[in-house]
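Exercise 7b. Backbone tokens:
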């Protein structure tokens, strides 16, 4: 694999190299011990049977203690090595993918918004779970070549007791088996990609319909939604059945290759006697069987390549400066220069749809400014990157999303490890402290997107979260929309006290008159053809 994701994978796995080396050594021991164990067992049983058939005198001269001890030793070695290989390979893979998932989440969060909006919830879930799981399986199977080469080496060493023809036959059968495996893996790759697409489509459909579950029930569309899910499930089931059938072919190929190798080596080694022929046949079968892990790796290679390609698109889209953001979202053009002072108080007013929210999102680097005209503390916004812009503002969006968790978890997004006094202070300023106490405190579960709270309570929790971010300026988009007049007045009064206490600035978007009284300056935004224009300050 090459590309941005491959580099991230190498970085994530660098700390696990020693563990992986131990896993590979264990796999090599498993491969060689398995071949030696089966070959020695075949020789021992056949030789013992021949000695018994030859009579008591031959039986008394037959040394069964040494091969029996060797068989026990090899069995113990194989069992211990297999346990060590499984333990170390999975440990390395799990630790690597844990780091990888964290970096993947950061990469998704850092994407320009125009790109991020094209990634659905189902697709993001597939990236974090399904695609990384495919990579995890590939990491576990990194020991497969070591097992194959060690088993082939041990088998060739045993077969040489009967001469080079059995060894050559084993090499030929192994090469032919892998040729067939390679051909089968190309078809399976297409099926793996189809399965991955079907999983992502089902997750996306479920996420979309679950979000609208209440509306669908209200309009009597439960059956329609269920049918859409059934169609997606049927497509996924068909893809999975086809993939499973193709995977079964790999086991059949390995079994067939082993049978041909065993029969060939038995015939070619028969001149050396029945015990050596049995040794050769069983060693050859086990050597080809040892190639099963590598065959399964080739079988999964198509799915791994598809997963890596999808993850490449994420790791290849780092956070970009505002000026480089794409135009998938509407851009903001200002005709009148706007000077923003971080410690000042500025109101943005205007009719719905005129671009106030777009302007706010541009201020924190989520939209592009294609023209000059906006400065923040005398810095041209075009020269500011998104990270710097976001550090200057504590943002409470108009439609804030809440985490599926507790009140504390939602506040910790902005507060980090802030103490409880800080959290309660923010809740008091947002007029939500009494409600949280009534629910059971900071650790009460509020459900998916705060479904246990009313719309106004969700807005106030988002406002409290913004209060906790230690930024020079509050950026509040309709913070009191939908609240009754009495609650609004209390929140505005508490906000005024908070601004005086903290010295923070304020940029406010609102249609309500009460919060606008907090601002020293106002800019009216009006709709102009193909652009949003600041008319007056």
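Sequence design result:
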């Amino acid at each position: 694999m090459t590309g941005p994701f491959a580099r991230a994978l190498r970085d994530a796995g660098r700390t696990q190299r020693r563990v992986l080396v131990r896993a590979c050594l264990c796999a090599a021991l498993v491969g060689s011990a398995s071949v030696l164990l089966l070959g020695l067992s075949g020789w021992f049983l056949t030789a013992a049977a021949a000695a018994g058939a030859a009579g008591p005198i031959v039986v008394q001269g037959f040394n069964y203690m040494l091969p029996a001890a060797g068989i026990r030793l090899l069995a113990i070695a194989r069992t211990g090595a297999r346990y060590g290989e499984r333990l170390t390979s999975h440990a390395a893979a799990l630790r690597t993918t844990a780091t990888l998932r964290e970096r993947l989440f950061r990469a998704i969060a850092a994407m320009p918004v125009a790109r991020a909006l094209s990634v659905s919830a189902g697709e993001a879930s597939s990236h974090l779970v399904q695609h990384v799981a495919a990579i995890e399986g590939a990491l576990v199977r990194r020991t497969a070549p070591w097992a194959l080469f060690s088993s082939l080496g041990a088998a060739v060493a045993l077969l040489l007791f009967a001469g080079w023809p059995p060894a050559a036959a084993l090499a030929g059968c192994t090469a032919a088996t892998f040729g067939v495996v390679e051909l089968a893996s190309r078809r399976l790759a297409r099926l793996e990609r189809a399965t991955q697409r079907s999983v992502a489509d089902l997750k996306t459909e479920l996420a979309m319909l679950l979000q609208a579950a209440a509306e669908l029930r209200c309009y009597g569309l439960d059956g329609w939604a269920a049918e859409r899910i059934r169609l997606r499930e049927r497509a996924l089931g068909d893809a999975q059945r086809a993939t499973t059938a193709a995977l079964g072919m790999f086991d059949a190929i390995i079994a067939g290759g082993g049978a041909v190798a065993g029969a060939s080596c038995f015939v070619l080694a028969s001149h050396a006697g029945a015990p050596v022929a049995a040794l050769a046949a069983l060693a050859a079968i086990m050597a080809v069987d040892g190639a099963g892990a590598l065959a399964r790796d080739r079988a999964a290679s198509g799915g791994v390549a598809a997963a890596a390609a999808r993850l490449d698109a994420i790791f290849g889209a780092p956070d970009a400066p505002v000026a480089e953001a794409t135009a998938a979202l509407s851009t903001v053009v200002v005709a009148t220069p706007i000077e923003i002072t971080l410690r000042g108080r500025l109101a943005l007013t205007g009719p719905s749809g005129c671009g106030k929210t777009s302007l706010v999102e541009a201020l924190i680097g989520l939209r592009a400014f294609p023209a000059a005209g906006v400065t923040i503390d005398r810095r041209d916004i075009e020269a500011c990157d998104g990270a710097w812009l976001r550090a200057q503002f504590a943002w409470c969006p108009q439609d804030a999303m809440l985490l599926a968790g507790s009140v504390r978890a939602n506040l910790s997004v902005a507060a980090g490890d802030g103490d409880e006094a800080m959290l309660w202070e923010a809740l008091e300023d947002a007029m939500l402290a009494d409600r949280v106490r009534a629910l059971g405190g900071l650790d009460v579960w509020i459900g998916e997107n705060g479904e246990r709270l009313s719309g106004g309570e969700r807005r106030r929790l988002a406002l409290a979260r913004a209060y906790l971010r230690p930024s020079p300026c509050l950026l509040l988009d309709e913070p009191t929309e939908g609240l009754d007049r009495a609650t609004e007045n209390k929140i505005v009064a508490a906000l005024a006290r908070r601004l005086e206490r903290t010295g923070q600035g304020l940029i406010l978007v609102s249609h309500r008159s009460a919060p606008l009284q907090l601002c020293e300056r106002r800019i009216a935004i009006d709709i102009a053809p193909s652009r949003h224009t600041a008319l007056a300050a």
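Instructor comment: Residues 318-331, 529-537 have pLDDT under 50 and may be disordered. The first strand starts at residue 338 and ends at 340.
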